[in-house]
Specification:
585 residues, alpha+beta, 7-stranded antiparallel beta sheet, 15 helices, 66% helix, coiled coil
Length: 585
């Protein structure tokens, strides 16, 4: 009942819209009175002319909208519908009110009656939302039915051209559908009569619920004679007429859940027999050949099965299933769009994280470069100081050798101390060698760090390439979405693997930094060791000083005997060591 009321409302909506001359969405009360009177007359409902004024007595602002008229329509007209009126007469009345305003059938290849039938088919297949439109899936379903009824082959190319002419619009109004059929886009090469017969066949099938029709022989119940009748099968009945003009009905075979249809053997000179068993009587029927017999038995069994399952007519069930399928597809498309937006947001978040990571790495690299520059400068300063110290030590050694040549007599006394001093110099050279090795290790660590940075940059470029591929993949067509999802997952895995490899490179870089710090510590230990040996050399330098010729001042007495220098020389030496110590600090 709800579906029938929806179809009634669609026809009434067309009539209401036709009365809206100014296209403001409102109709005057006087016009609505006439429309309500006509509706009540056609639907065989007592009309109350005062009811409209009483219902809208509080609304004197002028014309009424469709939403304002709907409560009155439901309460005073539709709620009183009994179902014993002629639905075709009702549709014809609504069609008469609206078709002249919206379309001119003179330039079309179809008659007014055929246009009315296409209009009824539109109301049956259109979406249950206003303003009424029919989507492309239902248009294709109708046109396929029409070409099949005309005995032609369905052309996908013609339908594709039709869709292109709509400028990417995915729906049509009733008048656009009538013009599409009436201009003969899908009936080229056929005469007008074939097109009219095709429209009539689809109209009978979809609107009048004619599931099958044709001539068959029926056996009488009284005289037991066989008479040819025109049979029309509908979801709940099998009617038979004198001929196919349907003017004189001879009777109805009411189908219900208790009915059944069975094949019969040939008898009484009749072939291809079957029987329809109902609760009160049975009907024996003969057809011309076995194929038609099987088709009629199958069609009648389908109707009985539908009644047992409590389902609507096959075409209404098919329309409902198509609508539910479109709803599911719309929900799936919305879910897919939402998932794509979430993936896009996650991708953008990951991109921001990578950008932040890149900035941090650049800052760390700049900081490391600055630290490296400072370390190199410190190393150069230390090398200069070590070079000056070595030069001074060489000069001291030369002076010592001269003193040894001049004071050969004292050489034996201090020979042991000189050997100790040379041993100290050898150890100092070993310390310097250790320092050079530490510098070499530091240079190797710096090269390793540079290679890790290059590899890290290569991985970052790979990540950017993967991101670009993902962005290109997101712009592909809807038909490739499923494949894109699989590729996107694979690229996500590649991205995760690349991120893991980037983390591994960072760990290796941290290990290289730790090795670099270890080498720096070794270098500092070598420098401290060198400084220790220099202090020892300075400590023992006075022990090898030989007696120089010149003025003889009173000698100092040490733990080892007479000293090799005077008090004045001792003061001068102390002053020089203090200056040297202050420069080192």
């Amino acid at each position: 009942v709800g579906g029938e009321l929806c179809e009634l409302l669609k026809s009434i909506w067309h009539a209401f819209t036709a009365l809206d001359v100014d296209q403001r969405g409102k109709v005057s009360k006087s016009q609505l009175k006439v429309l309500s009177h006509n509706l009540c007359t056609v639907m065989k409902i007592p009309h109350d002319p005062v009811a409209l004024e009483e219902h809208f007595k509080d609304n004197d602002e002028g014309p009424l909208s469709n939403q304002g008229y709907m409560p009155y329509l439901n309460r005073f007209i539709l709620d009183k519908v009994c179902g014993d009126f002629d639905i075709m007469e009702f549709n014809r009345m609504c069609w008469t009110l609206c078709y002249k305003k919206n379309i001119h059938t003179k330039h079309l290849l179809i008659s007014d009656n055929d246009a009315f039938k296409v209009w009824c088919i539109f109301n049956f297949l259109s979406e249950e939302r206003y303003p009424l439109v029919i989507v492309m899936e239902e248009i294709e379903y109708f046109l396929r039915k029409l070409t099949e009824a005309m005995g032609t082959v369905w052309s996908k190319e013609s339908f594709a051209e039709c869709k292109q002419r709509q400028n990417s619009k995915n729906f049509l109004t009733a008048w656009e559908l009538i013009e599409l059929v009436g201009m003969g886009y899908f009936s080229k090469g056929l005469n007008h009569q074939i097109l009219s017969m095709g429209i009539n066949e689809v109209f009978n099938e979809l609107i009048l619920d004619v599931l099958k029709e044709g001539y068959m022989m029926k056996k009488g119940h009284v005289r037991k004679n066989w008479t040819e009748r025109w049979f029309v099968l509908r979801p709940t009945s099998l009617s038979y007429y004198v001929c196919e003009d349907l003017e004189e009905k001879k009777g109805d075979i009411i189908l219900d859940q208790s009915c059944c249809v069975e094949s019969l053997p040939d008898k009484e000179g009749k072939k291809c027999l079957f029987i329809i068993k109902c609760a009160d009587k049975s009907f024996e029927i003969s057809v011309s050949d076995k194929k038609k017999k099987q088709e009629w038995i199958q069609a009648i069994q389908t109707c009985i099965q539908q009644l047992r399952l409590g389902l609507l007519s096959p075409h209404r069930e098919a329309r409902l299933r198509r609508w539910e399928l479109r709803q599911r597809q719309q929900v799936e498309e919305d879910d897919l769009a939402e998932r794509m937006r979430q993936l896009q947001a996650a991708n953008e978040s990951k991109q921001r994280e990578l950008e932040a990571m890149r900035i941090k790495m650049e800052e760390a690299a700049a900081k490391a470069a600055l630290e490296e520059q400072r370390r190199k400068q410190t190393q150069l300063d230390l090398q200069d100081r070590y070079r000056l110290d070595l030069e001074r030590e060489k000069m001291v050694r030369q002076q010592m050798e001269e003193q040894v040549a001049q004071k050969s007599s004292e050489l034996e006394q201090y020979l042991q101390r000189v050997r100790e001093l040379e041993d100290m110099y050898h150890r100092l050279e070993e310390a310097l060698e250790d320092e050079r090795q530490a510098k070499h290790d530091e240079e190797a660590m710096r090269k390793l760090q540079a290679s890790l940075l290059e590899e890290e940059a290569a991985k970052r470029a790979e990540l950017e390439r993967i991101q670009q591929q993902q962005q290109r993949a997101l712009s592909q067509t809807e038909a490739e979405k499923q494949e894109l999802m699989a590729e996107h997952l694979a690229k996500e895995r590649d991205l995760k693997a690349a991120v893991q490899q980037l983390e591994r490179l960072q760990r290796e870089r941290q290990g290289a930094v730790k090795q670099y710090e270890e080498v720096t510590r070794k270098l500092e230990r070598a420098a401290n060791k060198t400084k220790t040996w220099k202090d020892k050399v300075a400590k023992h330098e006075g022990l090898v000083r030989l007696i120089q010729p010149g003025h003889k001042e009173p000698q100092r007495i040490t733990n080892w005997g007479p000293a090799s220098f005077t008090d004045t020389e001792l003061d001068l030496k102390k002053k020089l060591w203090q200056e040297h110590k202050s420069r080192l600090i």
